[in-house]
Task: structure prediction
Amino acid sequence: MILMSFKFSHLGDYAHSHSFILKKIFKIALLIFIVLAIVWSFALKKPIYQHLYGKPYSGSLTVYEKDIFESLHVQPASVVVKGSNFAVQLIFLKHYRTTSKIVYVDRYNPVGTWYRGDRFSYIYDKLVPLDISTVSGKTAQPDILKHFDFSHEYRLLRSESERWNELFVRDDINNNHIIPANKNIAIALEILKKGDTAHMEGYLVHIKGLGNDKNFELKSALTAGEISHQKAGGQTTGLCRIIYLTKITFDGYIFE
Result:
């Protein structure tokens, strides 16, 4: 009886020791993963992406006084974008260029899509990986921009200022729904951040659903300061630009 008791105790100690070692290994592995993720996100990701997918740019970027909207002399063929269970048509309407100050970057993710739970959000989030909010003109001047606070909540940019009536210029503040034209542009958008000055080129497009989603439609602003027919909290809102982005330059690199 004494011998059996000793054996069971020994096996119990072994199991406890084995479990302790596994937990310790898991904690160490988790810590290493977290450290590597932080190092990748804050130190390695940007220079690696710039080197692999961008081209060095030695010029300087000056914020535009006015964004440039150009009529299309030759109408590009419309683009059909297909997902796993949807298809939409992008209708090209104007060529667009701006060099602006980035005041907000709102990236969409599957958790948010699931939370919102409607078909419109599902298609939109698959098509538009992020919204970029920009400021140009005199509002981008540091001594004016410092008086503004910006926040963003799913396709809606909010701007606030204690000197609103004095400083607000509708044409200068814009929210942009961005559709990357290719992989290089999509990767560039992953490292774009608030505070960057960026030159962007592309097309302003309307989005029209196809097939079972023929009622899906989203229209872009085509002029500066264009007003939306929708209101937020009873207040007038500006119409966002939907940009099929073909080129972006920031932080010393061009992606196209």
Notes: The chain has a mean pLDDT of 89. Residues 2-53 form one domain. The first strand starts at residue 55 and ends at 56.
